[in-house]
Specification:
The chain is 37% helix and 11% strand. Strand 6 and strand 7 form a beta hairpin. The chain has two domains: 209 residues, Periplasmic binding protein-like II (D-Maltodextrin-Binding Protein, domain 2); 222 residues, 3-Layer(aba) Sandwich (D-Maltodextrin-Binding Protein, domain 2). It is α+β, with helices and mostly antiparallel strands.
């Protein structure tokens, strides 16, 4: 099933869904309390790492991922039990790609169903439609899919809905209980903490992502030809953007979705030492938008636009449009989530140029860490047997790199979708139309990420070196995993105030001096209340 695209971010910014959803999410007793303050906290799931193949470069606690330059010669199973019972299972997930072929014409989908021993019906919702579809689903609260995937996007009152309508998984996953699902137990602690508890309980399984936040992807070939150094300062960065703009080529491109919050400015704010969204000191929370470093980052973006060094359609272009312009060499750089690395290198650029990542340009850089997860999978309330079945499905799809289950979930069927030899995985033509991007089972369960880019070892090594240079200085968002009722209800509205303000200053509709008015508007709309609620929540959630 596939839904036509519309504009998620216009809906979110307009605040079309507000307080009435709170009542709809309750059980008749008024709004639920999703805070963890003064609650008995379920212990985080035990962490039991998978004993997999030795990497070519080790991962670190700072967020550097394990590096694999070649595919393991031998993979081993990570699931020993029968997963399903032959029943029908429906999952609703987001997608950033075209719809999959119907299951009857899709050998990849058939192979996944066979491995899981279920009839898996995946409802794929385009990213631009996701907010509206989820809002409609939460407002109705009826006829829910078995598995519902939530992203990091700010959906009003999503946590209240989860608490009221989704299964409490605490007894299945808290502490040592998770060990009956070894692949879920292999999900690192930072992903669970990024997801957070709801009312002290565990309601989902996080979809792990590497720690780097939105990053600057660069055409390293173009930069090298222009003499742009790997390590640069602010002036060198701005000069490079100007120098690379000529003959219908531009220094940087943004997409419209990046202006629904902090996405467009992440790289610049981190380069100039701004705190990552929320900073905490002495129990007080301060948002990055109120810092002088953030205003300096805004000024950099304003200078890029004033010099004409940006893709002219940046304020209206979709991420797909910008990726196309980047891949064909029209853009020297673009902002995107770090997790797009593999897709960028494998499916769009295809060796036309060397892909790289821009290093922070400030002497006191604080590169931003992400939440460590893209979202989480929740389950419709059901009896224990059904919940255990759904957990086994997620456990299978969360199989780690180096396992046979990972191979199926990520590459399909050997001989049909891929082959492998001493040089690693090589996809076959059928993979182009049948894969885990088009059938995004990765949004039901996903393996902890590693750096492995089959056919692109140089890009993999470059990304690993970038992580080693960048991640030790990276800072987390102090609010990750904390709960705020105001943020749950008004997060989309507050993000849009920020995004609209960034766009207004960046594109010259407002002077930089007007930024203080944007901050004041944000505070009055609920920002100050969020800060107070986060401070109250911090002590409980830190345990």
């Amino acid at each position: 099933m596939y839904l036509q695209r519309r504009s998620l971010f216009k809906l979110a910014g307009a605040g079309l869904i507000g307080a009435p959803l709170l009542a709809a999410c309750g059980d008749g007793g008024g709004p639920a309390d999703v805070s963890n303050a003064n609650k008995d906290l379920v212990p985080w799931p035990a962490y039991v790492p998978f004993n997999g193949p030795k990497p070519d470069g080790p991962g670190t606690d700072t967020g550097v991922q394990p590096l694999y330059l070649s595919y393991p010669q031998q993979v081993k199973p990570s699931v020993s039990e029968t997963v399903g019972d032959g029943s029908k299972v429906t999952a609703m997930v987001i997608t950033f790609a075209a719809p999959p072929r119907p299951v009857g014409d899709n050998q990849f989908w058939q192979a996944v169903n066979k491995a899981l021993n279920v009839e898996l019906n995946v409802i794929v919702v385009p990213d631009a439609e996701y907010g509206q579809k989820m809002t409609t689903l939460m407002a109705s609260g009826n006829d829910l899919p078995d598995i519902i995937m939530f992203t990091n996007l700010a959906l009003p009152n999503a946590l209240e809905f989860v608490q009221a309508k989704c299964a409490d998984l605490s007894g299945h996953l808290g502490g040592d209980a998770v060990k009956q699902y070894p692949n879920i137990a292999n999900i690192p602690p930072y992903a669970w903490k990024g997801m957070g508890r709801v009312g002290g309980r565990i309601y989902g399984v996080p979809l792990e992502r590497p720690k780097p936040a939105n990053s600057l992807f660069v055409n390293r070939t173009m930069l090298d030809q222009a003499g742009v150094p790997l390590e640069w300062n602010k002036d060198q960065y701005l000069e490079a953007m100007r120098r690379l703009t000529r003959d219908r080529k531009w220094g940087i491109g943004w997409s419209k979705t990046l202006f629904s919050g902090l996405g467009a400015i992440t790289y610049h704010a981190g380069s100039l030492g701004a705190p990552n969204t929320w900073a905490e000191s002495g129990g007080t929370f301060t948002h990055t938008i109120a810092t002088p470093q953030f205003e300096q980052a805004l000024d950099v973006m304003r200078q890029i636009v004033a010099a004409g060094a940006h893709y002219p359609d940046s304020l209206t272009a979709s991420i797909t449009d910008v990726k196309t312009q980047f891949a064909n060499g029209s853009l020297a750089s673009m902002s995107d989530g770090f997790g797009a690395l593999a897709l960028q290198s494998l499916t769009t650029i295809n060796n036309r140029f060397e892909l790289g990542l821009g290093r922070p340009y400030g002497p006191n850089a604080t590169p931003w860490q992400g939440a460590g997860m893209f979202g989480f999978a929740t389950f419709k309330k059901a009896d224990d047997a059904r919940i255990k079945l759904l957990l086994r499905i997620v456990n299978y799809l969360s199989a780690p790199f180096g396992s046979s289950e990972y191979e199926l979930a990520n590459y399909g069927v050997e001989g049909k979708h891929f082959t492998k030899d001493g040089n690693g995985i090589k996809t076959l033509p059928l993979y182009d139309s049948e894969n885990s991007n088009l059938l995004p089972t990765r949004y039901i369960g996903t393996a902890p990420s590693v750096i492995y880019l089959p056919g692109f070892p140089a890009v993999a090594k470059s990304a690993y070196e970038w992580e080693k240079a960048t991640m030790p200085k990276a800072v987390p968002d102090a609010s990750v995993g904390l709960r705020s009722a105001t943020l749950s209800a008004k997060g989309a509205q507050l993000n849009q105030i920020i995004g609209d303000g960034i766009a207004a200053v960046t594109f010259g509709r407002k002077d930089l001096a007007a930024w203080k008015d944007v901050v004041a508007q944000w505070r009055q709309a609920g920002g100050d209340q969020v800060a107070a609620e986060l401070a109250k929540e911090r002590q409980a959630a830190a345990n």
